[in-house]
Amino acid sequence: MALCAWIICAPQANGLGFRIPNQDAAAIGRGNAFVATADDPSAIYYNPAGISQLEGQNFQLGSLFYLGIYGDYESPTGASFHNQPEVLPVPTLQYVITPKDFPLSFGLGIYEPFGFNVNWPNDVPFRQEGIRANVTYLTINPVVSWKALPTLSIGIGPTFNYSQLDTLQGVFPVPYIVPGDQAEFRGRNWSYGFNLGVLWQPAPKWSLGVSYRSSSKMNYEGDFSVTPSPPLPNLGLHTDAAIDYPQIAIAGVSFRPNTNWNFEFDLDWADWNSVQYLTIQGVNNRPLEWRSTFMPELGVTRYLGKGYFLSAGYFYSPCSTPEEHYTPLLTDADLHIGSVGGGYKGQNWTWALAFQFIVSSWQNVTVEPPVSSTVNGRYRLMTPTLSFTVGYRF
User: Fold this and answer.
1) What's the alpha-carbon Rg for the chain, to the nearest Å?
2) Domain count, the chain
3) Alpha carbons 188 and 135: distance in angstroms, whole number
């Protein structure tokens, strides 16, 4: 029924749209092909084994900025709508210490591996399916890395995850909108998991990296409220919604023909196939049937001397949302992501900047019940991002 339609518009964790693999400007500049390089404190996220490469104490902070998530929608009648883009910061913080002449390195990272925000106009045809969605997902990740051999390191650590989910939809369809009608869910929860990684240099010019992030389940506990205009009553329900965040595995190889170049290719797998249902206690149990995805990532870095470097990269994120379960609150599509970046690595200070451009082609959507046909039409996504990091070694 319409009052429960928010079930299908809870942000779906598919492809790149809901996931944030961008956690370091130096890595973003090379298309996130970093698992076999992992030579700065962001290795806590990309490959915790990589922190064994860092000496002394290393502190790094930074942020990714989504410079607006631009979504376009064309209805079957030809009407056009655009979402309301916002600048969205995604901050990161890392600290790594390697005691002198000691085989263990220790790190602590705080970052957001998932998240999403979208706002459509109140009069969009699919307003009963969803107008707004916001997900915040924060991870606290202590890690330890053991340098088992001069060329082999192994890292592991627990993840403590906190998340908030907020969705909003209209109660009445176009053209029967009345002031103030809305159905909203707000919930929050903690979950736990772990990440691990291996970094191996079998030959001086080659490096291999593997990392794994466990799945985590969020049981969002909160309130689902429906507030039509007076004199209709305010309807409310305290409930919870369960979402399984996927396990993720990345493998990569880095080739360094000389001290001036670093080429890397990674293959990133996200197990969205494990998410088959979205269960809303006391409301509904909806099938989702998402598909797992592989993302190929390619990056190159040119070292210019005196600590300066330039990078470029590309990766591809295939659509993982089945058309019959499509939601306009996540314009999931086949995404092409290109990036450029640069920075400086000195004896103490480091910094990096990166620009990234995310774009999709038009995607045609024709859904089947129980999804409302009001979501039918064409969708397109475009997102530019800017990121920076600054670090200091003691």
Assistant:
1) 22
2) 1
3) 10
Contact residues for 94 (Cβ-Cβ < 8 A; gap 6+): 41, 42, 44, 45, 58, 59, 60, 61, 107, 108, 109, 110, 111
In this model, does residue 265 exceed pLDDT 70? yes
First-to-final CA distance of the chain: 60
pLDDT for 140-188, tens place per residue? 999 999 999 999 999 999 999 999 988 888 888 888 787 778 888 889 9
- Whether residue 291 contacts residue 276, with contact meaning beta carbons closer than 8 Å, is answered with no
CA torsion, ordered 46, 141, 394, 64, to nearest 10 deg: 60
Enclosing H/E stretch for 46: helix 43-46
Are 389 and 62 spatial neighbours (Cβ–Cβ below 8 Å)? yes
Structure tokens at 25: 């400007």
Tokens read off for 250: 């990345």
**29 touches 153 (CB < 8 A):** no
What pLDDT score was predicted for residue 70? Answer: 83
Q: Which residues form the domain of 293?
A: 2-393
Examine residue 175 and say whether the peptide bond preceding it is cis (omega within 30 degrees of 0).
yes
Which residues have a Cβ under 8 Å from the Cβ of 100 and sit 6 or more positions away?
56
Place of tokens 């038009």: 362
Q: Reduce the DSSP state of residue 113 to 3 states and report it.
A: strand
Looking up residue 17, the CATH number of its domain turns out to be: 2.40.160.60
Length of the chain, please? 394
How is residue 234 annotated by DSSP? P
User: Alpha helices, DSSP H only, in the chain?
Assistant: 25-28, 43-46
Name the nearest CA neighbour of 237 among 247, 249, 226. 226
151 with 199: CB under 8 angstroms?
A: no
pLDDT digits (tens, 9 = 90+) for 230-248: 555 556 677 777 778 899 9
Helix (H, G, I), strand (E, B) or coil at 26: helix
- How confident is the model over 84-90, as a mean pLDDT? 85
Backbone angles phi, psi at 359, to 5 degrees: -145, 150
Q: How crowded is residue 82: how many other Cβ atoms within 10 Å of its Cβ? A: 12
Phi, psi of 365 (to 5 degrees): -125, 125
Kindly give the pairing relationship between strand 377-393 and strand 363-365. Answer: antiparallel
Q: How far apart are CA 277 and CA 174, in angstroms?
A: 29
Nearest to 2 by CA among 383, 393, 372, 392: 372
221 with 259: CB under 8 angstroms? Answer: no
